[in-house]
Amino acid sequence: MTSWFVRGLAAASVLVLAACGEQSDGQGADRPVPDPLRIATEGAYPPYNMTDAAGNLTGFDVDVAREVCARIKVECRIVAQNWDGIIPGLQTGKYDAIAAGMSITEEREKVVAFTQGYATTPAYFVALNDSPLQDIDTGLERVNLTDLDEAEKAALATLRERLKGRTVGVQSATIHANFLDEYLADTVSVRRYDTQENLALDLAAGRIDAGLADASAWEAFLDSPEGRNASFFGPGFDGGLFGRGMGIAIRQNEPALLDALNGALASMQQDGTLKRLSEQWFGFDASMPAGTR
Questions:
Q1: Which end of the chain is more exposed for a tag (fewer CB within 10 A), N or C?
Q2: C-alpha dihedral sign at 250, 255, 260, 265
Q3: CA separation (Å) from 202 to 40, 128, 193, 207?
């Protein structure tokens, strides 16, 4: 799920979680790969992860997690965890890993370790089709925040001007919330939501002017009856605070588990399994290139 990260963490939270991790990680570097392997996902961030009508966890992350477990030959136990508590739950030992569309970011790497990236998709704004925001034209399809050129800076300036005074929704504790805080907080009114679904519902009802989320996370909404009157506007965003793709997060100082997970993901990249799963769930290949770290 892209707290991703950011799905991000405030500096104060980083210190608290780091301390918590130091206290809870009793087995440290000598710990073997757990069997069963307990993997947390959110269950509310389709198509990365969701809960079906029967109450079962499903989605891209769930399939990736199960395949990883099969390749390292351990029993897989996938559990649901609310997004705002997903890293604290890992640090306190409720589970061994997180597979939840979580973006690999420097902020998160202060408190958890990440595998290599296994998927990446850009972030996009969405608004109702009759919104004047749909007329925004920056002249660019993508903005990479890692090293902004003049055209990308101009595109951001255009967005700031056109969004001025608008209310923009975002899921709390995410990289998308971090983006709004850093680039648009002095221009727009930011409304934070506990889940992507609740954000989408308010957008469909016209209670906010626009929303920002991962492109793939928007797809379920845009394909639904409620979302057919909405669409993307402006360029997609990646790089910079959006991180280096999505990875599986584990506690720091567990090299045996990290090596096992990386080995499984590398083999899934090389034999096309990640490509097949991403095409199944997203409709396009969102997998990271083989060898990506």
A1: C
A2: positive
A3: 27, 11, 10, 5
Q: Sign of dihedral through CA atoms 27, 32, 36, 40?
A: positive
Query: For the domain that residue 191 is a member of, what is the CATH number?
Result: 3.40.190.10
pTM of the model: 0.72
Side-chain-facing half-sphere of 229: CA atoms under 13 Å: 10
Mean per-residue pLDDT of the chain: 89
Structure tokens at 80: 């649901």
- Answer yes or no: is 112 within a domain: yes
User: Alpha carbon of 275 to those of 88, 120, 178, 268, 285: distances in Å?
Assistant: 31, 12, 29, 8, 5
User: Which positions ≥6 away from 252 have C-beta within 8 Å?
Assistant: 21, 25, 111, 112, 113
Indicate the length of the chain as a whole number: 293
**pLDDT band at 30; cut points 50, 70, 90:** low
In which domain, by residue range, is 96 found? Answer: 11-120+245-282
